[in-house]
Amino acid sequence: MSLSSVIPPVVATGQIATAREPLYGGEIKVHASPKSTLEIAVHTLRTHDTGDTSLDSGYAIGLAAEPRSLLLMLKGKAVVSASADMVFTVVGTDQTGAALTGTATFKIPAWRDLPDRTFAAGYSTSVEVTAGKLFKSVVSITPAVPQNVIDQAPTGFAFVLLAIPSADSFNEIGCTTESNFNSVTRPAKTIMCGMDGKFVKRGRSPVGELSISCKTLDHFGGIRRLEGVTGATILLQPLKGDLVASEHLLFTGVTLTSNSKAGEGEDEASQSGTGQFELMAIIPAKDAA
Fold it and tell me: From the CA atom positions of the chain, what is the Rg in Å?
């Protein structure tokens, strides 16, 4: 199955019951692109309505050579928005060099029916622009309105702007049998005081580890398609009932090493890829208009 979009389609009213169902492992489709996801900028909130944007000039060169769609991801900390959605404006130029403005809205979809606006680390949303437009450059990221909706001190909240590969660069890794990954959020660490644990705060982020296993169709496709590729992009697509994508999980900076296995007789040949990733973006499906 080809990937129609890196961003999941909206959940229609008639699909809500299916979108809320538990997930089978066999419903997760795995798509891989040899292209890297570019980390264009980081916007860090300093107060509720001010922040700093750090643009990466190196990745900006890559964006100029290949205009792309953008994704804004919350990195490192969870945010609780007490009374309204969080909205950011991204300003830059499109593939023709004309001015382009996009909007990224952090909003819990109504179909999920959650009681509050808690955005976990990794929560991501697309930067919406006029159909057919792509960003060739980025000038700024700013809150569209003061983020006084945040229900805690915003200091240190970082939003990462990602330029994602086009959907047609992804190929499905068919007949997958297993996919495993860990969280890269900083884990809890207890600071001792005498003989007792006195304080708990977050320590150093762990290394992102990812593994994918599949049946062997050949040794130049499947997960081995990424053999020797540094900084690939992998997308996990939970497709409930083989129909409804409730979310997409995007892994950036993926570098894998593959292994193959085959027994005797009718033993099924398989291959696996194990390695590391940089970021994991969680992209929930939005509500139908």
Answer: 20
pTM: 0.92
Q: What span, in angstroms and rounded, lies between the C-alpha atoms of 16 and 110?
A: 10
Is 9 buried (19+), middle (13-18) or exposed (0-12) by CB count in 10 A? middle
Q: How far from chain centre, in Å, is Cα 289?
A: 23
- Window from 138-142, 148-152, 182-186 with minimum mean pLDDT: 148-152
pLDDT tens digits, one per residue of 68-111: 999 999 987 777 776 678 889 999 999 999 999 999 999 889 99
The CATH number of the domain covering residues in 1-37+167-289: 2.30.110
Q: Are 48 and 148 in contact (CB under 8 A)?
A: yes
Burial tier of 207 (Cβ tally within 10 Å: 0-12, 13-18, 19+):
exposed
b/e sequence 179-190, b meaning 16+ C-beta within 10 Å: bebeebbeeeee
HSE-up (13 A, CA, CB side) for residue 31: 24
